[in-house]
Amino acid sequence: MPENIDMDLYSFLQDPEVQAVTTSNTADLQERLTFRPPVCNVFHRPFTLLADDFRYEFHIHPAAREQLPHIIDNKVQQITGVDSLDSRRAADYTKPRNIGIVFSGGPAPGGHNVIAGLFDAMKKANPDSRLHGFIMGPDGILESDVVELTQEIIDAHRNLGGFSMIKTGRTKIDSKSKIAAARENCKRLNLDALVVVGGDDSNTNAAFLAQEFYDDGVQVIGVPKTIDGDIQVKDTHGHVLCAMSFGFHTAARAFARNISNLCADSSSDVKYWHVCKVMGRVASHLALEVALQVHPNLCMIGEEMADYIDSERIEKAKAAGISDYTAYGMTLRHLSRVICNAIVRRAEVGKNYGVIVIPEGILEFINEIQVFIIKLNTIIAEYNQTHDTDFHTHFVTLTEKLDYLRRLARFSREGQGFFVWNTRDDDLFNDIPAFFQEGLLTERDSHGNFQFSLVETEKVVLELVKDYLKIRQEQGRYKVGIKPEWYAKTIRKGGFDPDMLGPVLFKNYNAHEHFLLAKDSLTSLKTLNMELVRGKIIGKNDDIPPAIQKVFLETVPKFKTQVHFYGYDGRGNDPSWFDCTYTYNLGQTVFSLIASHVTGQMAAIKHLEKDFSEWEPIGIPIGPLMHLEERKGKLALVLERTVVDTESSAFRAVKALREKWLAATPGPDDYRRPGPIRFAGASIESKPLILTLNNLGMSKK
């Protein structure tokens, strides 16, 4: 008995009914731990074989061919199941293997099932095979911090969220010394293969390790993981090979459930605009899926803003005989106007509340901001390369950083050499609020990327929105519509004739509208007083009657916001049926690739957008997916990330339904209730709505 618990309390806690209430071993947990996901048809056979599929082609970047010669000519490989092999191949397939696995980057729901699927497949082939998990991500490889994964460990984590089994980290194995340490530790463990579960950077790392370990006989297989959904693979001809990375579906559903609750709350107390920022720095897939799941009043998709063309500005420029290149791509100011217009329109029908969904990286799609980010990334990287101290260590305060930029602008102006930062940049940057300047000058992440998660993106947008709403309000063009019945009842109670007073107060009084809108001229109690005097409702020295004042104040909008960020909660969610099944089959696919002695391949499942019976496990060559991208101010070979296709059926559906979801009309909102994530049962959602719509769109063509 613990020393700090008395006997009576100890006895109480030992009661079976009390233990049933306080145990962490819940019924839901037991259901998850005992669930065994179905496997693709090919895995029902005792053996699998690989076959190169020459239908798929890729444009190979010359830098990829130069840096990855051993794996660059890999092909897409189909996996087939067979009942028997010749004795030599059967012996090779079933020989005992040592396999290492590592999680890299942020957690994503389903990671544990990748390990479980691999473990079950290798043990089925040979019970003497051993699986080694590297602890805390790539650091575990470099420091040889490893644990053998046993049946007991695996069974305790099946179908559970997080990466707690072996943890994760963000270290990159990107230098000769690190590669040498990784090689030595993998050889010491006598590994036949290393499996890297991660996102674009991690699979990039997997490709380079496959190249470096090629002559050592250590295979390297990648697994696509990221809740952002930006690892998608198509070949040159647009054939989809990997429709979505794992973890995306669960995270989107977790976010959607929470945001749906906000929709219910918002329409209940009718006084808040909930601004929901969801993860997605480079791509807006999560925001798009959440929009389909929830039907928020407004959802901004970054890729659409990047493609925006201001036709009106182009025509004005054409008439003036000039070209206005700033008309291409949405500006920060225009974005604020779009949001303002939606808020104003809803207010006019009495809905001074709502829900807005924005992707974390929305500012990255704004032209002017992107220019600042590129230039500041270059300045910071160059400074770090040419000085003995780090930029952020040397220039600690915002004032010091701005002074340095100002000096660069002066040097450029005085012709003392070529500088990325010029006077125009400095002038524009100084117009930005200080908190946003500080955000743009925050320290970059370990990959040299601007950390949008550290910038209050929503604050930047909301500050502009509030400024514009204030202007609209001062102009009398931002009003809350009130119901005629409430107006009439309130005015009669105050002793006035509604029909006599109505034309004085409202610009649409006799239009038989569902909501009355105050005249544009009524912007304050002072202007209300003047209008009442002019309409001979009161005398010049009279006070505004309480009933009339009450009606007026009801028309005055109060823009109140609640800001929310959705990211880490979704990353750690227990996986949906889709992600449980997807990742378990990815693990099985990994073993098939290893058993056939390939390296530099990414395990994938084709036809995720279709019924499970049509899923096809494949291997995708990582090398051909690489391209040059700026990292830390330099061009580096990395796996290309996929952004939202604005021509896709899913996006076009959202675009077409926006007006309905805005619901800037009398009547109920169109909020959708996705409900909790169902692990089993009739109401489980078998795949992301994006995949369903895109598949339906293809089938209708």
What tags apply to this protein structure?
Rossmann fold, single chain, 9-stranded mixed beta sheet, alpha/beta, globular, 4-stranded parallel beta sheet, 701 residues, 4 domains
Explain how this protein is built.
The chain is an alpha/beta fold and 701 residues long. The chain folds into 4 domains: 1-26, no CATH class; 35-246 and 575-631, 3-Layer(aba) Sandwich (Rossmann fold); 250-471 and 648-672, Rossmann fold; 479-555, no CATH class. Helix content is 44%, strand content 13%. The strands form 4 sheets. The chain has a 9-stranded mixed sheet, with helices on both faces. The chain has a 4-stranded parallel sheet with strand order 11-12-10-13. A hairpin with a 5-residue loop joins strand 8 and strand 9 (240-242). The longest helix has 22 residues, at 248-269. The chain is globular and about 105 Å long. The protein starts with 6 loop residues before the first helix and ends with a helix. The mean pLDDT is 93.
